[in-house]
Specification:
Blueprint lengths: L1 E10 L2 E4 L2 E5 L5 H15 L7 E9 L4 E9 L7 H4 L5 H38 L4 H13 L1
Parallel strand pairs: 3-5
Antiparallel strand pairs: 1-2, 1-4, 2-3, 4-5
Length: about 140
């Protein structure tokens, strides 16, 4: 059994991996195997056309097909990427991903703080009370007097 990594293409009930027709192994009728492969990819594995995937199966070069046993979304760094794209830098990609998540996290934290402050001020306005921050300021001013 081999693993093939490539871009999934789905047109109607026919799926292919970088031009090789995907057939579900164990089904002798070609049309049924083609339909079963596409249904397996879309309904069971929830994969979409254009997605990078790994397919485990056996290549049939005489008809440019792969008898597929299993498939899944490709990992971030599939085997063989270096040979397909020598300019790909996994460390830089990982660093970019970490930075993007850190920025997302910090903006989310800041948004939550701003939303909390805004909510406290609205509650204080409706109840005619001072906000926590201004109440602290008043207490501090009284101590200093």
């Amino acid at each position: 059994m081999s693993t093939f990594t490539g871009t999934l293409t789905i047109i109607s009930n026919q799926s292919s991996l970088d031009g090789d027709l995907l057939l579900k192994s164990g089904i002798p009728d070609t049309a049924q195997a083609m339909f079963a492969a596409t249904q397996f990819l879309v309904k069971i594995r929830k994969l979409q056309s254009g997605q990078l995937i790994d397919v485990r199966g056996q290549k049939v070069p005489s008809i440019s097909a792969i008898l597929m046993d299993d498939a899944r979304a490709a990992s971030l760094q599939p085997s063989g990427v270096a040979s397909l794209n020598p300019t790909f830098d996994a460390a830089a990609a990982e660093s970019d991903l970490i930075r993007a998540f850190a920025e997302l996290g910090s903006s989310t934290v800041e948004s939550k703080k701003t939303a909390k402050r805004s909510a406290e001020e609205k509650v204080a306005e409706t109840e005619g009370k001072k906000t926590t921050k201004s109440a602290r300021k008043d207490r501090s001013n009284k101590k200093n007097e």
